[in-house]
């Protein structure tokens, strides 16, 4: 059996809970987590030209992973709407990535990574529940059109409730491995993974190693699935 280790991590612009900017802490967390694919949120600073908060030049050396090849928000950005996906280099050779604009009160978008027999969608949903509902409805409708049956949707859902706002995910198994926010004393399950029902999920959890409580305001979450 071949396993695929998936993860999601909101980096909070690599500032820990309050600062300073220290991306090496986040890279150490990702390296210790050892994902095959990880969806990242808040990889860029928000103001001005939105330069990268997670330095692209350090990623492969520190983690062994590479960022998805895509058109980013700006010339000096790492991600699109602050999001990117890192993966093993051999997976990157087969990957096709597209950007999916989303409705809502704030500028938001999803990052869609297509691999042979698997589609991974990274999200950072809006702050208003009405926006989150509209965004998930758009994502699931588009996923049905552009993806096959093996779909994983993961990221910062910004939703504290276990069922409200997630109605569009009725066709998925939604995993909230545990409280992931705020990192020092987590109480809320903002970070989730939604997986096609027929994909086998073997294990999942919230990662607290490698000083993750100090590296961001979120803890990373992970799940191991049987590779389709």
Automatic annotation (TrEMBL):
Task: Spell out the InterPro entries in the cross-references.
Answer: Endo/exonu/phosph_ase_sf, Endo/exonuclease/phosphatase
> Which GO MF term does the entry hold, naming one?
endonuclease activity
What keywords are assigned to this protein? Endonuclease, Hydrolase, Nuclease
Residues in domain Endonuclease/exonuclease/phosphatase? 7-218
Q: What is this protein called?
A: Endonuclease/exonuclease/phosphatase family protein
Organism of derivation = Paracoccus angustae
């Amino acid at each position: 059996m071949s396993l695929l280790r998936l993860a999601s991590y909101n980096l909070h612009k690599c500032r820990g809970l309050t600062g300073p900017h220290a991306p090496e802490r986040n890279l150490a967390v990702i390296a210790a987590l050892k994902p095959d694919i990880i969806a990242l949120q808040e990889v860029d600073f928000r103001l001005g030209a939105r330069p990268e908060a997670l330095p692209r030049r350090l990623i492969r050396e520190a983690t062994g992973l590479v960022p998805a090849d895509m058109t980013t928000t700006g010339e000096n950005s790492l991600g699109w709407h602050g999001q990117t996906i890192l993966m093993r280099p051999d997976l990157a050779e087969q990957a096709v990535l597209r950007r999916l604009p989303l409705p809502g009160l704030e500028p938001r978008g999803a990052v869609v990574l297509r691999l042979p027999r698997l589609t991974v969608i990274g999200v950072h949903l809006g702050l208003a529940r009405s926006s989150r509902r509209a965004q998930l409805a758009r994502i699931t409708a588009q996923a049905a059109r552009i993806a096959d049956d093996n779909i994983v949707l993961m990221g910062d859902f910004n939703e504290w409730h276990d069922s409200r706002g997630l109605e569009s995910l009725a066709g998925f198994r939604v995993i909230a491995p545990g409280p992931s926010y705020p990192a020092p004393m987590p109480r809320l399950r903002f970070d989730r993974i939604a997986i096609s029902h027929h994909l086998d999920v073997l294990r999942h959890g919230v990662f607290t190693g490698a000083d993750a409580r100090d590296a961001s305001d979120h803890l990373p979450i992970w799940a191991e699935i049987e590779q389709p």
